[in-house]
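Minutes, structural biology subgroup

Action item carried over from last meeting: produce the structure token record for LysM domain protein (Geobacter sulfurreducens). EB confirmed the sequence was re-checked against the source entry. Recorded below for completeness.
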Amino acid sequence: MSSLAPRLWVGIAFAAVALLGVSGGAHALDRRFELTPSLLSQGGEAPAAPRSEGRPARKSERASAGVTDYTVRPGDHIFKILMKEYGFSNREAETLIPEVRRINGITDIRRLRVGQTIRIPLGTAAGSDVRGHSRPVAREAAVASVASVPAAKDTGHLLRMTSYAGARATHDLDAARRLWDGLVAAEVRDARPIRIEDRNFSLSLDPENFPTFPAADGGRILVDADGKIPPLVRALIEEKEPSVRIVSENPRNRRRFLASLLEGAGFYSVEENVSLEFGADPKLTVTADFKVEKSPDSLLHNDVILLNVDEYRRGVPPALTGFLKREGFQMVEPFLGRGESAPPASQTLYQITASEPRDIADSLLRALNLRYDVDRSVELFGSGDGGVTLFVRADRYFENGGDRFVVSHFDGDPVSYTLTRLLETRGYRVIMLGDHDDFRMVAEKIFGRLRMPGSFARYDLVPYREAPYGIQMSGFRVPRSGSATGGFFTNAALNPLFRDLLDFNGYSIVSY
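Output recorded by EB:
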């Protein structure tokens, strides 16, 4: 029996180890919480684990200042890498993270790619001595012990997060909040700070440094502008308060910040970089940074929001604002920088309203400021031609830049056509019109004979880069030539809205 005792004890030991292994696998900790549960049970920095004298140094130990490379493994995030692999304290890691993000081009510290190699600057962390080893750093009461919680509440450990925002960030945040108050109904706003009570912990966030915005669906949006909330705390918030959505964009980047707010607001529909078109020729195109439909029937109730947040372009004039409102859209431009001042009048638009070929030609000649004679008799043969004198009737005759021009309408008479063409042998520049010539054909003939460069096309009269809307119109854009004036020539019909917008953008409209 005595010889069986040692074997019995060895068997019991192996069974206990196996049982513990099975139990541990059945209750494995969520990877989101595996890094810092110790922070919730200690009042200060976690002390560094003691090393035996004979244990070799870890590969990632901060033995000297400089920059080292680290390959991302599954479950890694920057906090974990800096604190667990390189021994930085929580404060040192927070100080170093902006530099790590900068040199590696990282936009989101929680989304590292497995296998990615990142560079870690070892010599720039605050609170490290010349040998590269971390030394104790005085820290604020970011983590309090159980004793700091009132005895009447059995809420475990108290974790209080604090961030820091600059004056500019505060200004940008206030501007965004004023805009947000107009987008979200007052009845769904919840001004309470984020606070989570649990049997094992109590979590609160300072509303001054971690502000919240109401969501349209009754939830809340938590702003973590500088990514100060550790992954563990983020996981706790997402686990215990699913109605809270965390936004990590900085208010200084206004467009990205508002995009993240709108994405988490719970609106029925949010579109970015929207373009709306009205009309064919001329065509009005309205652009918006965001289009927001609060509910499925927003369009029926004329409650679709067009939001522009770019402050470097001119705003929308009142005429266009009123038109959009009648079409069911509300234009919101809360950050205008250049106001609504229009540029000085510097261009002329000539609208040709005539429809008959002769009338179109007369309108174009008047628009070009070319004086012409009607039914002028032009000499084909004179006294120097052997005593033979022959005059040909020209519908219109004018001169420009030393050249003589004849405009004739072909009525089917071959004799008249031949005599008119013979004028070209005498140095006249002949413009022959047909019965079915429209504005484009007449204009091409006149501009071509005048040697005025310009082609019929659709032109951007108001470029998008100057304003959140544009006007496209077909016609001719020609420069000045001799005594002929230049400008934009079109036969497009202009309703009052287009006239107002063109006038607002510096066009003088002259109709013929």
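Discussion: Residues 146-263 form one domain.
Next step: EB to file the record with the rest of the batch.
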